[in-house]
Amino acid sequence: MTATLLRTAAELHARARTGRRAVVMTMGALHEGHATLIRTARETAGPDGEVVVTVFVNPLQFGAGEDLDRYPRTLDADLELAGRAGADAVFAPSVDEVYPGGEPQVRVSAGPMGERLEGAARPGHFDGVLTVVAKLLHLTRPDAALYGQKDAQQLALIRRMVRDLNFGVEIVGVPTVREEDGLALSSRNRYLSAAERRTALALSQALFAGRDRHAAQQALRARASEVPTTRARAEALSAIGESRAAADAHAVATTAGGPEAVRAAARLVLDEAARLTPPLTLDYLALVDPSDFTEIGDDFTGEAVLAVAARVGTTRLIDNLPLTFGTFGAAS
């Protein structure tokens, strides 16, 4: 399948529309993670709908000293990948098309949530993201827009903007796509040398360590809840050697655990990576409530996000995993 290249909003608006339009917003340099988004968009739009992929390197979301000029631009390859994945059109406007007359004087503010974590590390970044997302939503006029969960804070802010400002569009989050070694797919991975890539694996390994610690704790708590409450049952189980196992589960499950244990397990992996050559330089490790991206406490229940950002060499990478607290089920 060949995707049609569109350069202007007028060309996009001139297209006949039938069914639902699903949009995937990218900055280009497409990879398998983007292809997954496009395939999901194809399912969302349905056989009679339309999938539009935007390719636009947004200058508003790059801060001083960041990689705007060296950000990879591979439009021909992007067109090919988008078409194979099921896109009908690729909308690749110029900066002048998106920002006629220069940088916009009126912008969308990300508010307090946009000042935490990624926002603290990159001041003004999310104002630039939300401004361009708002403009592209207006320009493409979709029924649904799809975003990767790898950029969890960005996804949360887009959802909040759409809800708070009454955008009539469905926002769909798509799970992070990883390479076989666990590294989250990113256009910035191409900047990593072989040695840097080995160090960068610590990001996903730290998240997996936190997830596994949480899952083990949840399993032990579930088993502890089954400890017999009557002496007769305890004696009966003791005869078949079960009471000791239950007691061990209870002892472990009531020791320190929860969010702080998850953070500690992840931090241990990151501390070890800081001693590698080349080293990993941590920006943050956070376990947050996805509704506002504030740190959760030990009594938290519900969905949470374990997030990490770090630099390896000159490349800055982010990753995250969702976790669920307050049930005996394993982490998601």
Can you tell me about this structure?
It contains eleven helices and ten strands. A six-stranded parallel sheet has the order 1-4-3-2-5-6, with helices on both faces. Strands 8-7-9-10 form a four-stranded antiparallel sheet, with helices on one face. The longest helix has 31 residues, at 194-224. With 332 residues, it is α/β, with parallel strands linked by helices. The two termini are 35 Å apart. The protein is globular, with a radius of gyration of 23 Å.
What layout of secondary structure does this protein have?
Elements: E1 4-6, H1 9-13, E2 21-26, H2 32-45, E3 50-55, H3 75-85, E4 89-91, H4 95-98, H5 118-121, H6 125-140, E5 144-148, H7 152-164, E6 170-174, H8 194-224, H9 231-239, H10 242-253, H11 258-273, E7 280-289, E8 294-295, E9 302-312, E10 315-325
Parallel strand pairs: 1-4, 2-3, 2-5, 3-4, 5-6
Antiparallel strand pairs: 7-8, 7-9, 9-10
Helix pairs in contact: 2-3, 6-7, 8-10, 8-11
Low-confidence stretches: 251-255
Tertiary shape: globular
| Rg result | 23 Å
Our count of helices gives 11
Mean pLDDT comes to 90
Neighbour order of strands in the largest sheet: 1-4-3-2-5-6
Q: What oligomeric state do the depicted chains represent?
A: single chain
The count of strands amounts to: 10
Amino-to-carboxy terminus distance: 35 Å
H/E element sequence: EHEHEHEHHHEHEHHHHEEEE
What would you call the structural class?
Answer: alpha/beta
What percentage of amino acids are in beta strands?
15-25%
Please summarize the sheet with the most strands.
6 strands, parallel
What percent of the residues sit in helical stretches (DSSP H or I)?
A: 40-55%
